[in-house]
Amino acid sequence: MHAPSHFHPRRPRLIAGAAISGAFCALLGLLALFGWYCHIPQLVQVQPGMAPMQYNSALCFVLMGLALEAWTCGRTRRALPVLGGIVALMGALTLGEYLFRARLGIDQLFFRCYIATGSSVMGRMSPVAAFSFLLGGSAMVLLTGATGPRWRALAVGSAASVTISISLVAIAGYGFDLPGAYGWGQFTRLAAHSAAGLG
């Protein structure tokens, strides 16, 4: 889910990379949503016993994918603040639930999840995913408009770098069986395909 790190709208390689990333994110999220609705655990969990991609995470992937596609088409003025803002808000609210031990009613607001593997609260995305979506959504909001001050480009690039690093650490954690790399304490763990999508 890496965000473009520059604001110039006519860099072909950057545009192509963003379009591919957007399509991947949207497809990943849609497949997980389809798996939840149709009770196909193989689309929700990479393997039995592994943490599922939570429903809200899947929604955020779809929205991030759409935001990236909107950016590649130059439709930034309306699409990015809305799509990115929703993703950032979802991430921030979820982090708030963890930080303040609160229940805001968003974890199963849109769908009642039925797989609790690796989850500290049914339906709640992992804090790793929430933090990454907060960064990614905020970056999308900052990308509004074709140009901007240098600090905005630096902020977007930094958000993308942190998110990619989180993704790589989580993927390595799954590869080397290090749960601490994709889960924070006893909180909900980051799903393996969520980790791939965040990169």
Give a structural overview.
The chain is mostly helical. Helix content is 60%, strand content 0%. It has 7 helices and no strands. It has helices spanning 12-37, 41-44, 55-72, 79-100, 127-142, 150-175, 192-198. α1 runs antiparallel to α3, α4 (79-100) runs antiparallel to α5 and α6 runs antiparallel to α7 (192-198).
Order of helices and strands: HHHHHHH
- What's the alpha carbon Rg, rounded to whole Å? 16 Å
Strand content: under 5%
Multimerization status: single chain
Percentage of residues in helical conformation = 55-70%
Shape: globular
Number of strands: 0
The biggest beta sheet, please? none
User: Distance between the terminal alpha carbons, to the nearest Å?
Assistant: 5 Å
- Average pLDDT, to the nearest integer? 90
The structural class is mainly alpha
Count of DSSP-assigned helices: 7
Taking pLDDT < 50 over at least 5 consecutive residues as the criterion, the unreliable ranges are 5-10
